[in-house]
Specification:
The structure holds 2 protein chains of 2 kinds.
Chain A lengths: L13 E2 L7 H21 L1 H31 L8 E10 L8 E8 L1 H24 L6 H20 L3 H19 L6 H32 L4 H7 L5 H19 L6 H5 L5 H10 L2 H10 L1 H4 L3 H24 L3 H21 L2 H31 L17 H15 L5 H16 L1 H26 L16 H16 L8 H10 L11 H24 L13 H7 L4 H46 L7 H24 L1
Chain B lengths: L4 H20 L3 H26 L3 H31 L13
Helix pairs in contact in B: 1-2, 2-3
The chains are: A mainly alpha, B mainly alpha.
Chain lengths: 649, 100
């Protein structure tokens, strides 16, 4: 361990004042936007269609301006005075003071929230602006913007929460918004199914998070970060490990980590800006945020941290391998998101030394992945919504701006020296090598694979020969779509400045803990050189095997087992089917059979018996007067005999 | 004082004939007559016992039975008439619709 447990920072906010008391407005603006656009759009579709998209863009931009103002004021405060809280109102208040559940609608604004706020509102606003162009011909554009605003509002609630329950509110809001947006084109069966799949798999993760919240309440009597971080040391390691694993389960669901990764690739059914929003600014980053925010738990539960590292390492390779085989440009990028989130989780799993770099990579990834997805959307826009890269080729001449910005994102994600991804990925690998060389080596390998699949994607899309149909006329997208691309491209290039002088580490240190500079076994520059060489090999392989050959318009079927597996998402769906869906179906049909035979059988059996006896007894009512008379006589004789017997006895 | 025994024996014989007739005959009129026979058998017994005990209780009871029997004849014959009109038959076995 590079630090002692006593160094785990405690959340100890002071009451927010000045510009910080506007924290709630940051959430309220997009939330109001969602309400206005969804209700207004339903009541008066005509007027809203003319200005709804502008309103939908202005509100997140307003949030961004406030976030920026808060961030600048935060920089002006002392290092140890950068944690602020705002009590809005009492949300839940039960039991007598002390042993009941008391939850306030409390917000926490500290360096970690500050960075997330800027990412969500900044990148989110750019995606909103882009959507004006991308969704221009969609009849339900107002509703789309309403959902986007809801998504942003939920994510802002998540990162501004001061306790796990408010966080959970945002967490579920994100789940709802993603469901609505993935299934936005619900007339397509595949989109509706993908939305349901994302929702259901996320429920599995949510179960972990909600159980963790209950455990926190049982253990500490509170769900507040302030209370828990101050008293976490008092809990047993078993409790902390359980808490850590449950939080990880939640994080796996939202961040699409193995084994809850299957929804992410299907989520590509949503409109492309949604994919960008899910992958860059919201949703999948929530899991990483949760783990970094819960550092006071994880720092005391090394076993849980080890599991985080394992999950992260498996996922970063898993996603990278999937990315290699996909011909659908969005799915290839989705595989890469899985892989990159794996890097962030790896950083988060490495403890205090890695938290800051996980967040650093998360921010950079937010820039370049939003750039790449919006670039992919721009390509699709010009190619009549075709997503198959085998139908692209030579697009660099037809879409110069998209090509230029996409290239910046490409160089950033493969970690080309100087670009943002280089700095952040490199730092995570460095820490990983130092603390857990197996994970470190896997991360290096992942970097190589990233180089391969991203180069493959670039070559198939922008280079080589034209492979599109005659009636497709690729064209550059309108300025409203290219402007966000240019901004994001600039950020993808410049993201590394956050590392200058160790700024991001120092800035986040009050939240994530201080680490002393240790003597790494391998010097940092050596790791960088090795990683760059491995990436170069990956790029080289792609150039040789993809760039130098003709790319068939239809995917070849006589491929190796590995390729086939990767095309099928490494059989993630089949594994789920075998392990969960089929036993689940067997269980339900078994329960149904038990219900119909045993439970229903008991009751219907009783009813049948009574009914059968009744059927026999009613034969007595045969309608013949003389048989009734005989019964009379028999009865009378019996009475007489009984009387005689009594009298004579 | 005459012995009451012969009257009771006769009454029993009449009652038995009536009961067997009710159980075995199918013609509603005959069944009806057998019912009357049983009523009169019981009347005979009542009157005989009244004579033996030397009071009028039994005689009064016999009158009641006769009144009830008369009323019964009115209602019963009317029913038999109606059944006969609709079915052209006075057999009690034919009127067996009211069953399971």
């Amino acid at each position: 361990m590079m630090f002692s447990l006593a160094d785990v920072p405690v959340v100890d906010p002071t009451s927010a004042d000045g510009v910080f008391s506007l924290a709630w407005v940051v959430i309220a603006l997009p939330l109001a936007g969602a309400a206005i656009l969804l209700i207004g759009g339903a009541i008066a579709p005509k007027p809203f269609a003319s200005f709804g998209h502008l309103l939908g863009c202005l509100l997140p931009i307003g949030s961004f301006v406030i976030s920026l103002a808060m961030f600048i004021s935060l920089l002006g405060r002392a290092d140890d005075d950068r944690s602020l809280s705002q009590h809005l109102y009492t949300w839940i208040d039960t039991g007598t003071s002390g042993n009941g559940l008391h939850v306030g609608m409390d917000l926490l604004y500290d360096p970690l929230s500050a960075l997330f706020l800027l990412l969500i509102t900044g990148v989110g606003s750019l995606i909103h602006i882009y959507s004006i162009g991308y969704m221009e011909h969609d009849a339900r554009r107002v509703r789309f913007f309403g959902y986007l605003n809801l998504f942003v509002a939920a994510m802002l609630t998540l990162v501004l929460a001061e306790n796990y329950l408010v966080l959970f509110l945002g967490w579920e809001g994100v789940g709802l918004a993603s469901y609505l947006l993935i299934g936005f084109w619900q007339h397509k069966h595949s989109a509706a199914a993908a939305a349901k799949k994302a929702f259901v798999i996320n429920r599995v993760g949510d179960m972990g998070l909600s159980t963790a919240i209950m455990l926190a309440f049982v253990t500490w009597g509170s769900t507040s970060f302030t209370v828990i971080s101050a008293n976490a040391g008092g809990a047993t390691e078993k409790t902390l490990t359980a808490m850590g694993l449950l939080l990880l389960l939640g994080a796996c669901g939202k961040s699409a980590q193995v084994p809850l990764q299957a929804w992410l690739l299907d989520a590509m059914e949503g409109p492309t800006p949604v994919s960008a929003l899910i992958h860059a600014a919201t949703m999948v980053t929530a899991g990483v945020y949760l783990i970094v925010r819960s550092n006071f738990i994880f720092d005391r539960a090394p076993n849980a941290q080890t599991v985080v590292v394992i999950v992260a390492t498996v996922t970063l390779l898993w996603g990278a391998v999937i990315g290699c085989a996909k011909d659908d440009i969005k799915k290839a990028l989705a595989g890469s998101t899985m892989s990159q989130i794996g890097y962030m989780m790896l950083g988060a799993g490495l403890g205090a030394a890695g938290y800051a770099f996980a967040i650093f990579h998360l921010l950079n990834h937010g820039f370049f992945k939003a750039n790449l997805f919006l670039g992919a959307g721009s390509v699709m826009h010009g190619m009549d919504d075709d997503v198959d890269m085998r139908h692209y080729g030579a697009l660099r001449k037809f879409m110069p701006i998209t090509f230029a910005t996409f290239s910046m994102g490409y160089l950033a994600i493969i970690g080309f020296p100087g670009f943002s991804g280089f700095w952040s990925k490199d730092k995570i690998i460095e820490v990983a090598i130092d603390q857990n060389w197996v994970a470190g080596v896997c991360a290096m390998l992942g970097a190589g694979i990233t180089g391969f699949y991203m180069t493959r994607l670039m070559i198939m899309t922008f280079f080589g020969d034209k492979r599109w149909e005659k009636d497709v006329h690729p064209h550059e997208s309108p300025p409203v779509m290219t402007f966000p691309l240019i901004v994001l491209a600039a950020l993808s290039v410049l993201g590394g400045v956050m590392l200058i002088g160790g700024w991001i580490e120092d800035f986040l240190a009050p939240v994530t803990g201080f680490t002393e500079e240790a003597d790494p076994s391998i010097p940092g520059w050596a790791v960088s050189v090795i990683v760059v060489l491995i990436v170069a090999v990956g790029v080289g392989i792609a150039v040789v095997f993809v760039g130098r050959r003709d790319i068939p318009r239809t995917a070849p079927q006589d491929v190796s087992f590995v390729t086939r597996a990767a095309r099928h998402d490494i059989y993630g769906d089949d594994i789920n089917d075998e392990l969960v869906v089929r036993p689940g179906k067997a269980l339900t049909s078994g329960l149904l059979a038990f219900d119909t035979t045993v439970v229903d059988g008991t009751f219907s059996g009783g009813a049948l018996t009574v009914g059968g006896l009744g059927a026999l007894a009613r034969r007595l009512q045969n309608g013949f007067v003389r048989s009734y008379a005989l019964s009379f006589l028999g009865g009378v004789l019996l009475v007489v005999l009984a009387l005689l017997a009594v009298n004579l006895a | 004082m005459h012995s009451v025994t012969p009257f009771i024996v006769l009454s029993s014989i009449l009652f038995t004939i009536g009961a067997v007739g009710v159980l075995t005959r199918r013609n509603a009129i005959v069944v009806f007559m057998c019912v009357e026979l049983m009523l009169n058998a019981s009347n005979l017994a009542l009157v005989a016992f009244a004579k033996q005990h030397g009071n009028l209780d039994g005689q009064v009871a016999a009158f009641f039975v006769m009144v009830v029997a008369a009323a019964e004849v009115v209602v019963g014959l009317a029913i038999i008439m109606t059944i006969f009109r609709s079915r052209r038959s006075a057999s009690v076995d034919d009127a067996s619709l009211l069953k399971y």
